[in-house]
Write a structure and sequence with these properties.
The strands form 2 sheets. The chain has a 7-stranded mixed sheet with strand order 6-2-1-7-8-10-9. Strands 3-5-4 form a 3-stranded antiparallel sheet. It is globular and about 60 Å long. Helices cover 42% and strands 20% of the residues. It has 2 domains: 4-66, no CATH class; 77-274, Vaccinia Virus protein VP39 (Rossmann fold), CATH 3.40.50.150. α3 (45-54) crosses α4 (56-66). With 275 residues, it is α/β, with parallel strands linked by helices. Bound molecules: S-adenosylmethionine. S-adenosylmethionine (SAM) is lined by residues 67-72, 75, 103, 105, 109, 132-134, 137, 202-205, 221-223, 226, 252.
Length: 275
């Protein structure tokens, strides 16, 4: 069992040796992560703190381990089905769309969106920005190459979306969007879904989000859940400023916007339209 003062030691060693400030992460999940890291690394807390303070590479490694990277292709199929009407309506008169995936992890969410835009018949130009705190995971996202068995686990997600929207759109089989290499057992997202993608390292806790343009859609799913409420609200305020009017903010299934901030949006199944 690690104590509150141990958690403070970890937060302090990061603050003293880097720009990473975990003080506004939710206590419970941060503590759970540290406990898991101690077991996996086979070190005591004091040893961990010492190593972080002495070795910048190790600090980065532990930072990447603190943040949870689990993601899926077409994660939460209900959301993709609910998104159909508001997104289709929003895109009706738009010949270009600018989308930000904040906390993009290894990129499956961003590529799902690109596939989805094609599936719902969007013919305009899509520009996608994927950002994450983890430099390592951003490199995976850029490549868009995944192990066959990882994608296989999520084909059901895609098929649920495909079937759920079959009355209105004709989504193709998932194989249409991916190139399979049977020798390596790898699947690569086709190059057309990699066009106009911009992947960047960005720490959502820092207040300087420097983008040239505003966004039509911001997806930030299963990220805010790791932060305390104050930090969640600060970030949602920044998202609101960065959205075009009537733009969409999409949060994860277990995330929501609380009053009074919720008055700035209309909420339909966790798809928030900027008012
Ligand atoms: C659980 S994953 C969610 C990925 C994807 N959005 C999804 O829903 O499948 C959370 C992602 O948030 C990133 N993250 C955590 N803290 C962050 C921060 N302060 N700034 C930016 N990204 C962060 C993690 O590195 C991780 O890739």
């Amino acid at each position: 069992m690690i104590r509150e003062e141990d958690i403070q030691k970890i937060i302090t060693v990061f603050k003293d040796n880097s720009s990473f400030d975990f003080s506004e992460y939710s206590d419970k999940s941060f503590k759970r992560r540290i406990e898991k890291i101690l077991i996996d690394e086979g070190v005591s807390l004091d040893r961990l703190v010492k190593k972080i303070s002495k070795d910048a590479k190790y600090l980065n490694h532990i930072k990447n381990r603190i943040t949870v990277n689990t993601t899926e292709l077409f994660r939460d199929s209900d959301m993709w089905i609910s998104l159909y009407k508001p997104l289709k309506k929003y895109l009706k008169h738009k010949n270009a769309v600018n989308i930000w995936h904040a906390g993009v992890s290894s990129g499956e969410e961003l590529y799902s969106m690109r596939i989805y835009l094609e599936g719902i018949g969007y013919n305009g130009v899509a520009h996608s920005v994927g950002t994450d705190i983890s430099d390592k995971i951003i490199e995976v996202a850029k490549k868009g190459i995944y192990k066959n068995n990882i994608i296989a686990n999520y084909i059901d997600n895609y098929n649920l979306v495909k079937d759920g929207l079959s009355d209105v759109e004709n989504f193709k089989d998932i194989t249409h969007y991916l190139i399979s290499n049977t020798k390596t057992n790898l699947l690569e997202v086709k190059s057309e879904y990699k066009k106009n993608n911009d992947f960047q390292i960005l720490n959502l806790i820092n207040s300087d989000y420097n983008f040239d343009n505003k966004f039509d859609v911001i997806m930030c799913r299963n990220v805010l859940i790791y932060f305390n409420l104050d930090l969640q609200n600060k970030i949602i305020e920044r998202f609101h400023k960065l959205l075009n009017s009537n733009g969409l903010l999409i949060l994860g299934a277990h995330e929501s916007i609380m009053p009074p901030l919720s008055n700035k949006f209309e909420n339909n199944n966790n798809i928030y339209t900027k008012l």
